[in-house]
Amino acid sequence: MQYGICPLSIAPIRVKPTDTSEMISQLLFGELVEIIEKEGSWIKVICLWDDYEGWMDIKQIEPILTEVYESYKSNSFYSLELIQPAAGNNHYLPITIGAALPDFDGINFRLNKNKYTFSGQAINPFSMEASPDLICKIGRKFLYAPYLWGGRSPFGIDCSGLTQVVYKLAGIKLPRDSSQQVEGGKTINIIDEAQPGDLAFFENKKGNITHVGVLFPDRKILHASGRVRIDDIDHLGIHNKEIGQYTHHLRIIKRFISDHEPLKYSVVANEKGEEGEQLETLF
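and the corresponding structure tokens:
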């Protein structure tokens, strides 16, 4: 078995082993893959986070040993900063929100043999319980990010990439595509029973799930359509006030987090390497 890690800020995953092929997803810095096939200068990978498969340029993945792969799986923080540079020995590397920081101690982390320092906020989501409050606060960070098919970063993101990365930072694994995400969670029968942080799924004229967004308070929804935006939502779907019409037809609402009080504390590492930072100070 061969494993790899993304050593770049963002790296594309494509349908076929060529630069002109459609980009279907992205790896963020520090995310892990299993390498299952090689064709010339391209490798086919399975992403650890969501089991998504696709082709990557072999130069954009750094091979790692099995023991390193296993260690990083359970010992990584995630960046909460939209964009924050990590300082290497002779270069700076932009780190995006959701990027993994292996062996992070609050100041330093290591990617294989390369040492970095990182002065931004990072979070270990698996040490806490997700909440509607946390989901919405993380989601707001992506406002005005441009829409990009297959994107998963503030420089370009699609609807399911947005929900996946937001939930990732809350410690919840979601599949990559909206048609896959809708298969999980608890069904909410009517929108009046929904709560912030629930995911709303939308269908096209053929009845296929093609869009997803995060419900916000006061009948609002955060979603990626042209850009990441907040629009009105009701039992019919998403209503865009700018154009005065409905843009997406509501199919179903799913809940992936439990009903409880908003999160008050989370395990966070700051520039001093301290833990226990209040959530309110992070946003």
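(Above: one complete record from the training split.) The first helix runs from residue 66 to 74.
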